[in-house]
Amino acid sequence: MTITSLPTHQRAAIRQGTGPSSTTTIETIPVEKPGPGQILVKITWTGLCGSDKGLLHDEWAAFGVNMRPETNGIAGHEGVGRVVAVGEGMEKRWKIGDRAGIKWIASVCGECDFCLTGTDEVNCINQKNSGFTAPGTFQEYCLADGRYASRIPDGVSDEEAGPMMCGGLTVYVACKRSNVKAGQWIVLPGAGGGLGHLAVQFARAMGMRVIAVDSGEEKRELCQRLGAEVFIDFQQTPDVAAEVMKVTKYGAHGIIVTAATKAVYAAAPGYLRPNGTLVAIGLPSDPTILAGAPPLLIALKKLNIVGSITGTLQDTQEALEFAARGIVHPVLTKGKLEDLDSWIDKMAKGQLAGRTVLQVSSDE
User: Fold this and answer.
1) Alpha helices for 183-312 (secondary structure H)
2) CA pair distance 304, 269, nearest whole angstrom
3) What is the pLDDT of residue 15?
4) Using CA atoms, how far apart are residues 341 and 305, in angstroms rounded to an integer?
5) What phi and psi values does residue 161 have, to the nearest 5 degrees?
6) CA distance linking residue 203 with residue 14, whole number of Å
7) Dist CA 300 CA 296 (whole Å)
8) Alpha-carbon gap, residue 29 to 281, rounded angstroms
9) What is the pLDDT of residue 304?
10) pLDDT of the residue at 295
11) How confident is the model at residue 364 (pLDDT cuts 50, 70, 90)?
């Protein structure tokens, strides 16, 4: 094992309680050393994702998705920092000082049918997930699978790379899943939000014609600045579907649903032209909310309803390259790990602009 001088203890945000009233407290816990195949990353910045709120507050309990005891109460899955220790077998892949990113998928088995295809390990049946089945990135020092941590390219700061580990990756893959080609129309409800504003940038970079749907002049200015060709204010537009048809003639080629609301999922198929694709990535806590349309509409218009969640190791590197080339930049709201609960509260109230990143430690 290759190792620098490490402290024996570290700070971590530990969940207290369960359900919507759960909180976190900053506690002192031991720093673990990496075992074979692992690296230890000193986290400088970590993103705050809606999924972190969902797990900390047990929002998906109806689906059996709860933080497992193995997390030690530590959530977070958008962490970036520097490698400070390298476990046995990883010496040729990682060196002390390398920058690494830790994602929702913490590790995969490499042996199941999905891993063996070489392109679809996202569905690995033995995967471990940061903040769900393994300790997450809301701590100063985080163990990572050396095979599955992502190398951060030059030109991407730690705070920008954090949200790319999940938010940016998720919408990038959703753009690919939409099957929308360059020059075709894509609708992005909630385009001014944390996921939406990244989707606007990726879609535009991939040559799509973007219809941004959101409300307010601030969101209009943001979406248009990021490359949206059309902005529809849903609060001032009585019939959004009719406006989409007016712009596109036959309907959009694709729509990515980032908002986890019944209203958006119900309306989305009506924005599509024949053979159009709806990509579901917003995750409602209400199990009665469905993504789809009446079978008659699906059949007559030959609609495609697909889901997408996170991406592969290769997808992550591709998404990071967009940032490294200066094409995609998350709009950031910055805070501190010590204030995690207040940021979660602001997220729940819809008060956060863009993506939120929390500083965990200094890059020293």
Assistant:
1) 196-205, 217-226, 240-248, 262-267, 295-301
2) 9
3) 98
4) 36
5) -70, -30
6) 37
7) 6
8) 35
9) 97
10) 95
11) low
Average pLDDT over residues 335-362: 93
Collapsed DSSP state (helix, strand, coil) of residue 339: helix
* Residue type at 298 in one-letter notation: I
Mean pLDDT of the chain: 95
Whether the pLDDT of residue 1 is over 90: the answer is no
Measured CA to CA, the distance from residue 219 to residue 194 in angstroms comes to: 11
Range with the lowest mean pLDDT among 1-15, 27-41, 62-76, 304-318?
1-15
Rounded Cα gap, residues 194 and 190, in angstroms: 9
CB count, 10 Å around CB of 306? Answer: 15
Q: Which pLDDT does position 190 carry in this prediction?
A: 93
Does the structure show a pLDDT above 90 at 259?
no
CATH 3.90.180.10 in the chain, residues? 9-166+311-359
Say which CATH topology domain 9-166+311-359 has. Quinone Oxidoreductase; Chain A, domain 1 (3.90.180)
Query: Which H or E run contains 336?
Result: strand 332-336
CA dist 213 and 95 (Å) reads 45
Cα separation, 283 vs 122, in Å, equals 17
Q: Please determine, for residue 78, whether its predicted confidence score (pLDDT) is greater than 80.
A: yes
Helix axes 169-177, 196-205, angle to 10 degrees: 50
Please, where in the chain does CATH 3.40.50.720 lie? 169-307
What is the model's pTM?
A: 0.95
Q: Which CATH class is domain 169-307?
A: alpha beta
Closest among 111, 104, 103, 101 to 150, alpha carbons compared: 101
Residues 6 or more apart whose Cβ sits within 8 Å of residue 264: 189, 190, 257, 282
Nearest in space to 356 (alpha carbons), one of 133, 167, 185, 220 = 167
Q: Is 71 exposed, middle or buried (0-12, 13-18, 19+ CB in 10 A)?
A: buried
Residue whose pair of structure tokens reads 């010496």 in the numeric block: 91
The tokens of 265 are what? 């999922």
Q: Which residues of 142-156 are buried (b: 16+ CB within 10 A; e: fewer)?
A: bbbbbebbbebeeeb
Of 220, 240, 104, 113, the closest CA to residue 167 belongs to 104
Residues 343 and 52: their CA atoms lie apart, in Å, by: 11
